[in-house]
Amino acid sequence: MKVFEIKEDFILAGQPLKIISGAIHYFRMTPRQWEDSLYNLKALGANTVETYIPWNIHEPEEGVFDFEGLKNIELFVKKAQELGLMVILRPSVYICAEWEFGGLPAWILHERGIRLRSTDPVFMQKVDNYFKVLIPKLAPLQITHGGPVIMMQIENEYGSYGMEKDYLRQTQKLMEKYGIDVPLFTSDGSWPEVLDAGTLIDDDIFVTGNFGSRSKENGQVMREFMEKHNKKWPIMCMEYWDGWFNRWGEPIIKRDAQDLADEVKDMLEIGSLNLYMFHGGTNFGFYNGCSARETMDLPQVTSYDYDALLNESGEPTEKYYAVQKAIKEVCPMAWQSEPRLKQNIALGTYPVTDSVSLFNTKEALVDEPIYSPYPLTMEKASNGYGYMLYSMTLPYYGHENKFKVVEASDRIQIFTDGNWQTTQYQETNGKELMIAGQENTDTINVDILIENMGRVNYGFKLNNPTQMKGIRNGVMQDIHFHQGYYHYPVTLTPEELARVDYSAGKNSAQPSFYQVEFELEQIGDTFIDCSNYGKGAVVVNGVNIGRYWNQGPHLSLYCPQDFLNIGKNTVVIFETEGVEISEVSFCDKPKYLA
């Protein structure tokens, strides 16, 4: 007898099973937080945890793999097993998840003309190379080998992107080749077009849906699709959206707790579900995604609070208790308990101890700048994340000249002789301006700082050239392309920040580094107040905790205690908007735009 199988019901050890699951992304929180979040999921009444596995964090450079710290998927799964939870894994190379590039690695864009999420041999070879390392780590964790993993995903919402069944089959075969023998599944929206395009139902691959309301209506669509293909599988919503993500400059999206509880109750009456998200966490570093639009793409914020059952820092919300009650009403035998509570703390305010203009310290950041006759993209000149500073010297003819940057992404700041001229972003990118030099000079020093604000994580732009960041074409003076560029990556790694020369000269009107050194006698989970900052990112003891922007809605950054030290601490703020920063203040609650 199989330990776990899918028939008309989910069957575990010969008995029917209703899966009550919640999404916890191990990579959006620290390992210390895993146990409390997993325990609270079980205390809710759940029996399963689900997580995506992002390719780009595990293979940050092609052929270089990382499964340490918050990337330790094996440890996360084992921790779930210790607490008595089953696990659903989604190791598909594309995850969406409002995560940078949907989990695809930036380095894959080095391959000119590559067709992502297809049977393109170049793409599939990259997938094979990745799975060859990843899947053998997951195989021993399967329930068929004594582990807690009951199911794994082949691809994610593929029907919202493509319809190439051979691509899905090739992915399936790779997973099986490297040791996967638990049931596989796909997950798509709950309407016929995407189900037809994105599933392998005729190959007996289990079909799940993604939705967050109208449970019985959507469940009926799933049932009719299965019956059309002569399947009598159980209904499973793999992403039961209990909240939503947020984007810069937009109001925070909230969902009524009782409305969610009522819908969860309806869903459990007809099938199984995975709450997306149970605990959302944080898009640390430069890993926030971006919503694709025809013209104005909309990058997402650092917080992945998601208005979930646990908030960003892991505290149970009103939704937690409402859903817990709903689960008990439908599944009275489900084990439940009081959740573990936590408290964030304010750690004080500390003055900036050093600052320096990026332009004055740029030479110290690199062994030597990367020179090229024509500009290189961020993927070519760096790791593809963060910022790129392009510096060039133009001739000055004693009068204003036309100037424009041609084909660049995402956000462009142009400076001449150290003075800000303009900021361009999407709707104004490529717009021509007039520039001039200073009196009694025959050259103009131009610096262009470009920020990758996040690659799209969903939709039609995955294969669009705009996903290559930085300058893709060139810079024009008058009506010709300029030749001669020096490239300075600004990726905010610990190694890079250690090279910042704070003695090189400050200028708060220019993009700048601000350093704060201070001592702490106690540590705890906290927030950094960014309400008096402009736009940039914060690094705490070498860890990039994410981006801030005074457009809101979030005006603070979550900082787990794991990133702090008892004793000496160093915070570095990279501020791009000419806002002079004087202090770092830690608060016990997140701050929002009024």
Q: Any idea of the CATH topology of the largest domain?
A: TIM Barrel
Question: Which homologous superfamily in CATH is the superfamily of the largest domain?
Answer: Glycosidases
Mean pLDDT: 97
Shape, per Cα inertia axes: globular
- CATH architectural name of the largest domain: Alpha-Beta Barrel
Q: What does this entry look like structurally?
A:
- The structure is a single chain.
- Helices cover 21% and strands 30% of the residues.
- It has 594 residues and is of the alpha/beta class.
- It has three domains: 4-245 and 252-330, Glycosidases (TIM Barrel), CATH 3.20.20.80; 348-355 and 499-587, Galactose-binding domain-like (Jelly Rolls, Sandwich); 367-490, Jelly Rolls (Sandwich), CATH 2.60.120.
- The strands form seven sheets. An eight-stranded parallel barrel has the order 4-5-6-7-8-9-10-11, surrounded by six helices. The protein has a six-stranded antiparallel sheet with strand order 16-26-17-22-19-20, covered by helices on one side. The chain has a five-stranded antiparallel sheet with strand order 15-27-32-29-30.
- Helix 4 (121-138) packs parallel to helix 5 (165-177) and helix 8 (257-270) runs parallel beside helix 9 (318-330).
- The chain starts with a strand and ends in a 7-residue tail after the last strand.
- 49% of the residues are buried.
- Residues 375-490 form the Beta-galactosidase 1-like first all-beta domain.
- Pfam families: BetaGal_ABD_1, BetaGal_gal-bd, Glyco_hydro_35.
